[in-house]
Amino acid sequence: MGTQSSHHARAIASCLLISQAALAHADTVTVKRDTQLRESPGAAAAELAALPAQTPLTRLEARRGPWIEVRTTTGQTGWVHLFDVGTTPAASGGNFATGALRGLTSLFGGGNSLAPTKPMQTATIGIRGLGAEEIANAQPNLTAVTLMETLHMSAAQAQQFGAVAGLAPMAIEPLPVPPMPSQPATPGTTGTGGGNR
């Protein structure tokens, strides 16, 4: 029985090492476009090094807003903007650690790693207009209209609000009116707008 426990312990230790290798691979990112390694998160932070496109980086755990902490292959750590890096694509055949981890999860999950996987569902957000049926069945909300009318503000109230908030009127020149586009000459017309005479 002791030998069997020893084999189980070795198998679990091997699986843990393989999963660590797979997780380390998942933390690798690649610079998408030329950027700078910064000392701290923020565009105004001191530049530590130039990072050309396709530079591999190791993503560390720290993140502040859109900035992530990374380590270069030379061991230098710093910050890059999240939009400047992307995940490293896996090799076409995958790697050993990924395959082993997939097999391990299949073993413990009771599934067959060779069976086709179920398609993943993805949630998305979109904006759409109202359809003809929704417009035809629309009902007015008179309570909302009444509430909106109570929020009406006169010009005097708006000026008082602006004065309290420290706002001052300013004269701004309007933008010039753009010239009307000229009509392209079509066959059979002259350039002056007249037809064939």
Keywords:
7 strands, SH3 type barrels, 197 residues, two-stranded antiparallel ribbon, alpha+beta, disordered C terminus, five-stranded antiparallel beta sheet
How does this model look, in words?
Mean pLDDT is 76; it is low at 193-197. The N and C termini lie far apart (109 Å). The chain has a domain at 2-87: Roll (SH3 type barrels). Strand 5 and strand 6 (77-81) form a beta hairpin. It has a 5-stranded antiparallel beta sheet with strand order 6-5-4-1-7. Strands 2-3 form a two-stranded antiparallel sheet. It has 197 residues and is an alpha+beta fold. It has helices at 2-26, 96-109, 132-136, 142-150, 155-164, and strands at residues 28-31, 35-38, 47-51, 56-64, 67-71, 77-81, 85-87. The protein is 32% helix and 18% strand.
Annotation field: number of helices: 5
Q: What is CATH's topology name of the domain at 2-87?
A: SH3 type barrels
Strand/helix succession: HEEEEEEEHHHH
Largest sheet data: 5 strands, antiparallel
- Give the averaged pLDDT, no decimals: 76
Query: Fraction of residues in helices?
Result: 25-40%
User: Which CATH first-tier class of the domain at 2-87 would you pick?
Assistant: Mainly Beta
